[in-house]
Design brief:
By secondary structure, the chain is α+β, with helices and mostly antiparallel strands. The protein has 5 helices and 13 strands. Helices cover 14% and strands 28% of the residues. InterPro entries: Peptidase_S1_PA (IPR009003), Peptidase_S1_PA_chymotrypsin (IPR043504), Peptidase_S1A (IPR001314), Trypsin_dom (IPR001254), TRYPSIN_HIS (IPR018114), TRYPSIN_SER (IPR033116).
Length: 280
Amino acid sequence: MRLQGSATLAAVCLLSMWALAACFSETIINGKEVKPHSRPWMVSIQVNGHHTCGGVLIKDSWVLTAAHCRRNFKQSLKLVTALLGAHSLTKDKDKGILRVRIDKCVIFPSYDLKTKAGDIMLMKLQREVNPKSKTVKAKALPASGEDVAPRTRCSVTGWGVTTPNGKTRSDTLQEAEVSIMPRLLCADRYSGSKDVVITEDMLCARNSSTGADSCTGDSGGPLLCRGDLVGVVAGGGPPCGNPKKPGVYTRLSKTYLSWIRSIISLPKEVFRSLSAHSCV
């Protein structure tokens, strides 16, 4: 996730580990508004009714997002809700929008806040959504978890800020076009950074022509390549939109896909008793 602001906030990021984590958060820079309700799997994860992170509905009662989003609600899930079926976060109140409380969330076991490895989390909704809804539909997971080739054109979607210095999240859903960057080149760009280590389970993406990028508020949102869900927003920069510091995404590799499927297939009684790696 990336912090809001640029030079001032970047300086703040150097002062504490908490700020460093906050610098690694994400919204859409140099993107465009999508057609309303054309991305029915998009989820706005909210605390006290305010958007904090994005997410992807991957099954009727399961949302996939970034593990670092937990810092927004790590004390309690009582104030956390998932807003589904929205385009505008303030104006679509009666247009098929669902607000559902979170039953439980589970973080990938080896998530590392410092290096950002394993930055992925599952959230179980308290109730299933209607599979026949026109505004809320799950996005299928990729079948194989194969890597994505450099220069593949992709898109990232979210309600994050729309300028690197922005402080207000976008009210309407935005999307930006980006391209996958060679992993070794990306690793070189972050070689001097202590708060991110690029691994095989990550993807880097940028748009060197427009500066399009994810930013604050986009964390946990989907990266789609050729229409397939291949990753979730983890972070990048600062600042947002800097092609020398591309956006970083948790890749839905075989490791993560196997973990996701094992969790969502647990019997209810087993899942209820699950305490290890819970987000609270």
